[in-house]
Design a protein that fits this description.
Blueprint (H helix, E strand, L loop, with lengths): L6 H4 L1 H12 L11 H8 L3 H14 L2 E4 L3 E4 L11 H8 L3 H22 L2 H15 L4 H18 L3 H18 L15 H14 L3 H19 L4
Antiparallel strand pairs: 1-2
Helix pairs in contact: 2-4, 5-9, 6-8, 6-9, 6-10, 6-11, 7-8, 7-10, 8-9, 10-11
Amino acid sequence: MLASDNIVVTGDALSGLRQYILSSGLKPGQRLPSERKLTTELGYSRNTLRKALDALEREGTIWRHVGKGTFVAATVEDLDSMTASPIELGKQLTPFRMMRARLAVEPAIAREAAINASGEALSRMRVAMERARAAENWKMYEVQDDHFHRAIAEASDNLLLLSIFDQLNLVHRAVAWGSVTRQSIKPPSHHTSFKEHADIASAISNREPAAAYDAMRVHLKSVSGRLFGDI
């Protein structure tokens, strides 16, 4: 018998899917089985499974790539179990060097996104921005911030740029995580990144490569100044 859809509300289906990922030995970056296989193995209805997947995506445990599947995400807790090279590299970098690398790479990715973004990619950016604004704490915000920036890399429609972004993001986490002291429980409504993200998304949506490049540079320099000092 298929599990009832309201199981997701009680957390049973969500816990079951999370345990399935752990017991299957899936590592960050590895793809989950198809929805059809998961519904069979877990005994969930398709609706229940999708609700559980949505919940795991919101919390940053998984991420989806349209046309390619659902993948296990690289959460902060995963860092110790991941390939050592980006983590070891992160240990050798200062925040200054890490942000210089982001400034060299991410504006160019945003420019490509403005040329190649699909409607689905634009939708993923909007969803990430909405969820970031609704975040109840900084950790939830940071998950959605990651989703937003990765959605831009996906929108470039270039697997090499996406791979470069993923490696850069791993090093970014290794350098920055734990380095920031927050003065509030969650981002305030006037948090500058909200407008900066909107400006980036607008330039990409309007197919303005130069504006997208500039908006990403403004955003990254703002983040750098706020967290680490000007570079």
